[in-house]
């Protein structure tokens, strides 16, 4: 395992574990069954991403109607394709339908998706995230939109013409850069790091603490909820699948992950992966260029017992709520085995 570094760990809490469905080749009926089973087995939360496939709030509403306890999160929804007010309305509606179980996970996505798919200008991403948080908080609390303190628009004094189930909902932000992570400390309830080496989370948590100090907040109350790829033995080609996903994010999602992983010692590897991915003739082999050290830093592998033990160890690095990626393109039997084998009752 990677050598430990200085840790900044929040106050101990009851161990929580979430599950995340992958957006590509999303099987709606299969993941609905997965959410129902996760609810029965005591998982903390079930998260669904949104890219260019299913619409996310509708899927979560269906899950809300078939589950009782498990929290339901957008993991993640971008802050451009819907206006801040529409996001607030969607949050209030889903929170009511679910009986107060909604978590809003938000992020900026990237220019290619926002401009090329949604036809919106990718401008001032950090300000847009902050505006969404302020607008959602203000409208759910019964306030006037004009009082939200938003910077990207001049709003009129609209209020929600319904009473939200809760005056506030948890808002988690997916962010990789320092200013954006400090902003989480100021305004949000959780941080969703993706493909961030687990033994380097202390740096991100220190940035959260800096932002929290500016706002007079307690950083230990801000949840660190990384998307976590886990590969228990028995999931055929799990390592190969993980390498393909990592290569896709490094080679196909702009410079975000290249910058992050280069900062933590993987610059040459990222360059090689990106080069292979950029060429359609060699793209299929980009995953093979993901080194073992990177795979270990970003994933957990072993039999179920080893995975559970390693997950518990990694919580000491500041992981409050690991969100486990469910197997993709697998039959229900394999997904069920994964969910049951890694259930909170087994840890």
As a percent range, the share of helical residues equals 40-55%
User: N- to C-terminal separation?
Assistant: 20 Å
Order of helices and strands: EHEHEEHEHHEHEHEEHHHEHEH
Shape: globular
Largest sheet, in brief, is:
11 strands, parallel
- The radius of gyration is 19 Å
Fourth CATH level, the homologous superfamily of the largest domain: Luciferase-like domain
**From the helix content, strand content and strand pairing, which structural class follows?**
alpha/beta
Mean pLDDT: 93
The gist of it:
This protein is an alpha/beta fold and 347 residues long. The protein has helices at 28-41, 56-66, 84-97, 111-116, 125-140, 178-187, 201-215, 238-252, 256-278, 292-298, 304-315, 332-341, and strands spanning 18-20, 45-48, 71-74, 77-78, 102-107, 171-173, 190-191, 223-224, 227-232, 299-302, 323-325. Strands 1, 2, 3, 4, 5, 6, 7, 8, 9, 10 and 11 form an 11-stranded parallel sheet that branches.
């Amino acid at each position: 395992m990677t050598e430990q570094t200085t840790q900044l760990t929040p106050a101990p809490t009851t161990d929580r574990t979430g599950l995340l469905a992958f957006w590509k080749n999303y099987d709606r009926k299969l993941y609905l069954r997965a959410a129902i089973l996760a609810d029965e087995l005591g998982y903390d939360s079930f998260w669904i991403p949104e890219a260019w496939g299913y619409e996310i709030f509708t899927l979560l509403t269906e899950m809300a109607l078939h589950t009782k306890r498990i929290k339901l999160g957008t993991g993640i929804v971008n802050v451009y394709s819907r206006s801040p007010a529409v996001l607030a309305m969607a949050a209030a509606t889903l929170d009511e339908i679910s009986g107060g179980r909604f978590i809003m996970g938000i992020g900026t996505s990237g220019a290619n998706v926002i401009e090329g798919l949604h036809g919106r200008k990718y401008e001032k991403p950090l300000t847009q995230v902050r505006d969404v948080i302020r607008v959602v908080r203000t409208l759910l609390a019964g306030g006037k939109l004009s009082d939200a303190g938003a910077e990207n628009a001049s709003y009129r004094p609209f209020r929600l013409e319904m009473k939200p189930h809760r005056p506030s909902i948890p808002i988690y932000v997916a962010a990789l850069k320092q200013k954006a992570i400090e902003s989480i400390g100021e305004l949000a309830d959780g941080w969703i790091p993706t493909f961030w080496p687990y033994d380097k989370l202390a740096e991100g948590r220190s940035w959260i603490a800096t932002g929290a100090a500016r706002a007079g907040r307690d950083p230990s109350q801000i949840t660190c909820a990384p998307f976590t790829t886990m590969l228990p033995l028995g999931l055929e080609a799990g390592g190969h699948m993980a390498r393909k996903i990592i290569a896709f994010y490094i080679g196909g999602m702009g410079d975000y992950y290249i910058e992050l992983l280069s900062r933590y010692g993987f610059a040459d590897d990222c360059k090689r992966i990106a080069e292979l991915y950029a060429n359609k003739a060699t793209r299929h082999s980009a995953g093979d260029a993901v080194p073992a050290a990177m795979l270990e830093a970003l994933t957990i592998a072993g039999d179920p017992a080893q995975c559970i033990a390693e997950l518990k160890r990694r919580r000491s690095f500041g992981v409050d709520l690991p969100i486990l990626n469910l197997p993709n393109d697998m039959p229900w039997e394999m997904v069920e085995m994964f969910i049951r084998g890694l259930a909170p009752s087994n840890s």
